[in-house]
Amino acid sequence: MTADVTARRAAPAPRRRGIRPGRLISRILICVVGLAFAFPFLWMLATSLKPTDEVFATGTSPLGSRLEWSNYLTAWTAIPFARILVNSFLIALVGAAITVTVSVLSAYAFTRFAFRGRATLFGAFLATMVLPQEVLIIPLYLMMQELGLVNSYPALILPFAFGAFGTFLIRQFLLSLPADYEEAATIDGAGRLRTLVSIIVPLLRAPISVVFVFAFIEYWASFLWPLIIVNDSWMATVPIGLQMFSGERGTDWGPLMAAVTLVVLPSLLIVVLLQKQLQQGVSMGGFGGR
Amino acid sequence: MTAALDHAPASAPAAPARRPQRTGRGRPARWPAVLYLGPGMLGFAVFIVVPLAASLVISVFDWPLLGSPRFVGLENYRYMLAGDPAFWRSLLNTLIFAVLYTAVNLAVALGLSYWLMNLGGRWAAFFRVLFFIPVVTPMIGNALVFRLLLDDDGVVNALLAHLGITGPQWLNTAGWAMISLVMMSLWQGMGYNIIVLGAGISGISPTVLEASRIDGAGPVNRFVRVVFPMLSPTIFFCTIMTVIGAFKVFAQPYALTEGGPGNATNTLVLHLYRNGFSFDRLGYASALAWALFVIVMLITAVQFSQQKRWVSYDS
């Protein structure tokens, strides 16, 4: 009787829910992989709460003798953390906004105007997608020095706002967008720019957000250029602030890991907030989804 | 090459030859094109074309950070090829790094994204986000965490000791330092390819997969016969970008190993940076930049010329 009831209750379940043993093993395994992958972050978090002199003495134990919250205070006050976070967000926001604006305008021109040399110009422009920016940093530095812009926002933002990726991606979408809409609007008397802003841009919301997100992340994580062009903590971006802090107290692991944690958290926030754009974006045609 | 890149990642149709545009009001059409193209092409010229040309010019000078440059002809290039052993070492290191990093990155990212697709739904979404986190966290932070993990007395060696293994000096012996560099970079960068490849995989028509399943193909067979060929343009794109990224590797050796021990993990861009901004040799650094440029272009061109062998664009 009992067996009967159990059997009746159990029998249909696997078929309907579709949990085969293979799938269960697969899920357990991916959790193990995920945990191993997250381990550096977990260890960072654990270490950020240890007294520095116990960091290596505690071996594999995640906890020290006490929770050293003051590490966070040390990290927060050793470098102007709030200012640095604002710098990074500002630079990434403005940089991404410029990238998007310029990309939309260029993509529009490359698809909706016929002019001589269009294909050649676009080809040359596109080819720079594979040009390592590292090749350009020395002339760029000398240029900024000449203009008196070393250690300034324009120097941090402008040189990398004109890459070809955004134009390329948005152009792909414009090519598949029939020109009829705009022609109708133009005939109705709306100016070209107004047509672009009020009719085309809304239709391009998806690729625009992808370009924005990728530009934002690139600015946010950029290291080499800020390392060269920034020379005080007041203009530092997050990676440079961290670099300065580690340069000063490279083995003070407690506060150091607290500082890294403070930097990882906003990055985590960015990934979670923008995950939709990241995941859908790449499938939209820019990266070879088919 | 350009045309191929233009076409490769796109599912959109190739550009139709547009008829000369109508303004409807008989205005000359050339004007607005300049207006719209202006900002982009001005920035392109000022921040890409001019610096590229300028770096070639600077490379034939002895150019200190302060003080006046002196023309030296091809001396910087001669020194690079014949006088600077650190150049060859950093080039070799960069090649080793690029090969290891690209091969493992693509293999693991491909495997993981295929696995995640089979898991499906929220599981896939969650793990894709997890794997992407280190891409966004600043490299210098990631490197600091790995310096902590891989310290001689760090947790990795402590864990190995539990298993009765005496861990190596990860960051202070030549071979292990390179392996540590690759491992950290993989952890850092793989999430990007997982997302891109995942998008490619999810774009494969389910009916095709279903058909191959009905035909009796197991997961491995299905991967080799169906998924891989259909995904080959995406894989090609990822390979190109990953190789280029590998040749630009800088922050990882800068922060994790400082190029050491000795020059064991010195890379081209780290060598370039040090010559330019530590040793005050901007001219020589520019010659190194051009070497990097030429090498990256050559390797990318070779990859494009080989793509016919394994990349199929017909669905």
TrEMBL record, chain A:
Membrane topology: Multi-pass membrane protein
Subcellular location: Cell membrane
This protein's record includes keyword Cell membrane: yes
Keywords: Cell membrane, Membrane, Transmembrane, Transmembrane helix, Transport
Classification via Gene3D superfamilies: MetI-like
Signal peptide stretch: none
Residue ranges of every copy of the ABC transmembrane type-1 domain listed in the record: 85-274
Keyword Cell membrane part of the UniProt annotation: yes
Transmembrane portions of the chain: 24-46, 89-110, 122-144, 156-174, 195-217, 254-274
Similarity remark: Belongs to the binding-protein-dependent transport system permease family.
Cross-referenced PANTHER family: ABC TRANSPORTER PERMEASE PROTEIN MG189-RELATED, ABC TRANSPORTER PERMEASE PROTEIN MG189-RELATED-RELATED
Protein name: Carbohydrate ABC transporter permease
Organism name: Brachybacterium halotolerans
